[in-house]
Design brief:
homodimer; 226 residues; alpha/beta; Rossmann fold; five-stranded parallel sheet; globular
């Protein structure tokens, strides 16, 4: 398929393995992918550097990083001075960033409108996840409904579809899909507190879920630990 | 009512007359108001300066400005190099900022979660307005529904309510409400292309709607024109 016949889509790319697989699936599905990263005051910038590199290697048409200063509202271990816990407990954990996916999808929606794109992809997953409320199918459906009421293209145009192709996949399924798609997992950063070189802690919930997923899939995980 | 007995609310304050009246109504309704402005790459900063001053004079507990760089996605006369038209035409006008209200409400939602607030106020209005899709009742209802699926407090806590007290008011009604509440309208900036001193152009859709509203209410409009 040549690029002129591809439909444009906005794909949220964080630098982690889930959004890398999502981007590769959107590309495989025939979309011209406009990769979007949101700099929301993450603890480390290695995640954003990984996102830019993945967008390039996975064939995105372009990559844009939009900044929104969520540090100024605080409230999460990922953006404020709260320690990242070593393992998940009951309920929604402190690594939850208030309204993060709502904010990131909103920015993706704005860019989709500007591009005339009807499709938005994000890598949320509700199987092997940290229990965040904004990763569930009902959230994605509600966002899509909102998007179609909120926008010019929803009201006057072709409408907006929000794709979450990993929603029902286990972490092992995601690792297998990524391997099939030829993703270089050493270029992805999953850890909640990776260092400046993208090396993982090996102890947080994100590290644990990733390691278990690769192990279950029988695939070697090239994560670099510090 | 002393401040300790007031429930916290996040109130979106842009610096215009609508959000000033919204803030005053929320305060009158017994809320401890945390005023939020979003710097999204507006053409002028006089709007944000007006927002900060209004938050102070209208009794907000605090005022925060969160930056999100919507200039990088472009697509609107308010954020990109597109001329602001002198009057509205058919359909959604070029001053529409893609997904602006979705993005601003998302940030308000994030702050509400951090504050433990269940209430968000915004000054959208679907009577004398520019025809933006994200100003209609169905949009606000869909956002509230999303908010309750997206957040910790929606899932585990008291839930989120999104208030749009001006929704069904005419611009004349809003001017009258503001006068009753003692708002100094000279401190508000409505114009889409106000200059650095907050002086209005007198020609854009926002100027026209404001002038007609004050005239219909029989209230003197202290807008400064350049």
């Amino acid at each position: 398929m040549n690029s002129a016949s591809r439909k444009p889509a906005v794909v949220l790319v964080s630098g982690g393995m889930d959004s890398a697989v999502t981007l590769a699936l959107a590309r495989e599905g025939g979309f011209a992918c406009h990769a979007l990263s949101v700099a929301y005051g993450q603890r480390h910038s290695s995640e954003l550097a990984a996102a830019a590199a993945l967008a390039r290697t996975l064939g995105a048409v372009e990559h844009k990083t939009v900044s929104v200063d969520l540090r100024s509202i605080g409230g999460s271990a990922l953006t404020a001075d709260i320690d990242v816990p070593e393992q998940g407990g009951a309920g929604i954990p402190v690594t939850y960033v208030p309204a993060r996916n709502t904010i990131m999808l909103s920015i993706a929606l704005g860019w989709a409108e500007v591009l005339g794109a009807s499709d938005i992809f994000c890598g949320v997953n509700a199987v092997d996840y940290s229990g965040y409320p904004d990763c569930r199918p009902a959230f994605i459906e509600a966002f899509e409904r909102l998007a179609n009421l909120a926008t010019k293209s929803g009201v006057e145009g072709a409408g907006i579809r929000v794709h979450a192709p990993l929603m029902a996949m286990s972490k092992a399924d995601i690792a297998r899909a990524g391997a099939r798609l030829g993703i270089d997992f050493s270029a992805t950063v999953s850890c909640y507190q990776a260092d400046a070189e993208g090396r993982a802690c090996g102890h947080c919930d994100a590290c644990r879920l990733r390691a278990e997923g690769f192990a279950a899939a029988g695939i070697d995980d090239p994560t670099r630990y510090r």
